[in-house]
Write a structure and sequence with these properties.
By secondary structure, the chain is α/β, with parallel strands linked by helices. It is about 45% helix and about 20% strand.
Length: about 375
Amino acid sequence: MDLQTIRVELQASPYPVIIGSAALLSLGDQIRGLGFKAGTKVLLVTNAVVEAHYGATALQSLSEAGLDASTLVIEAGEDQKTPATVGLIHNAAFARRLERGSLIVALGGGVVGDMAGFAAATWLRGIAVVQVPTTLLAMVDAAIGGKTGVNHPGGKNLIGAFHQPRLVLIDPSSLATLPEREFRAGMAEVIKYGVIGDPELLADLEACGAQLASLTSLPAELLQRILVKSAAAKAKVVAADEHEGGLRAILNYGHTLGHVVETLCGYGTYLHGEAVGLGMLAAGEISLAMGLWSTSDQARQRAVIAAAGLPLAWPALDTNTVLACLQGDKKVREGQVRFVLPTGIGRVEIRSDVSEATIRSALASCA
């Protein structure tokens, strides 16, 4: 196996992000390499679809490394990302008598990773978690950085905790069974990295054109480069701002209005990445209205989002309801919504001075 390692250099709890085909086969050995002893109890949390494809491989790797592993299969989908589902993981942790030296392994997409991570953060006031993402979105974003949580009826991810994993293990071969719509949704987060800080990555994506929309047409070497560059970009920002006090907020580009789409349209109507793509387009329109970037930059962003097969039209939502929903965003400070806005390809800034009129105009331009 030719594995590449990116380090998340946190002062208190650094950890590796290991990327490469067939990496899943080494899961047990990688965990033992972190210092976990033979006989350590491991709860493998996954969903039915992922378990059918990769559960046996993961469990075998854990068992062959001498770990005392068992599997919990949960329902996964944005509508299942609730405290009740986390309670099922807590119940399994109790039944398996997980101790403070035990760990939870999250095998799945961002929903599984968020819930398993939150369960680990809150079981016995915090036990170890290992993230093994199986969707593109989770590989390039959700699994790295320690954000965990669940949704509240009033908004996305309002209940959660920062809980860094001990290891992130990314096996791109697990994308082979990912539905194409999910793959395209993950590409939105990749585009995000290009817009906020990596013009070279964005140029690579633009050169790919419509190949971006399907794993079967995307060159394997580009996929590996996407995974490595995205992991490195997130690792750098997380290391500089672990708890989102400042710089890390730029990773929320497209998410402020994207979360509104998810909340108001009903979780699952739009996939997370689809909503983020719409949020990026809307943020670009706000930047245009405020004179922060050019029509050519917005055209480039729109073209690459279109090439990835992502939706382009803002949904038919009442603008007053959108504005009210924005006030429930986690990033509101003293009643002011904080937007991450592009000022050029590869550059963004955080602004709290976006007027209601500007938001209304931008959303009208996206319809």
